Amino acid sequence: MFPGASSSNGRPSTSSWSRVTGRDQVRFFLAGRDQTVDDVERRDENQRRQRALVLGAIPPPWRRATVDRDDLDRFLFEPDDIVVALGQDGLVANVAKYLNGQPVIGLNPEPDRHPGVLVRHAPAAAGDLIRDLVRGTASLQARTMVEATVDDGQRLLALNDVFVGHVSHQSARYEIRLGDRRERQSSSGVVISTGTGATGWAASLHRQRDSPLVLPGPEDRRLAFFVREPWPSPASATELTEGLLDAGALLKIRCENPDHGVIFGDGIEADRILLDWGQQVVIAPAADTLSLVG
Question: Whole-prediction pTM value?
């Protein structure tokens, strides 16, 4: 049993502040900037209260473990685990790549702040949802994930999207290929999105481009891709800049950056794969799916 815990949008908890500087010093520091610690304290207290509520809903005989977001890559999930993610939507995306079919219950402790695309339930519902899973009556969604495979065998999974580009904020240079179409490009990188990610980064790119593409749904076995800010030049084209990857279609990108390309998923740049010049990455719908409790 894994009740996930998230930070408050990257802000330190009140207890952390107290240990480091003292609460009065924090108040004084913020007061000089016309800010208060009250909102952070309220949110911290709410998170603690909701976490206690969820832990109390776990049947007492069950084994349990609490894992912070930063420790997910070092945690060993068991095949029969039920995963409970308490936090913002991104927490579900963060844990998805480390699972192999285990059901995930997303709980939203702050519905006034988080849209609830993936954390779809109130913490108070945790007990009922766990019982439904045990009885086999829970509604489950098999959400499509995206997989990027490098020609040296490295592999990256993501629930929302994969980014392929330059290791820094410079222009990425690469050859992109979809079926019989291929071209060399210079751009700010390529975003390949699932139907779940179609409500996030891909949605922004779709609106910005006024794209006619119909974005996939969460369980569709299709992906959408967008090239960011493609630059036309004698050596780079701008024709193959968006599209859909239907079942069986592969998007291939060959790195032409002399100082490294990069791949990362779901916005987690720390968990990345570096590409050398000439290396190729293939992007397709993953065989793995996220089993999300509806």
Answer: 0.84
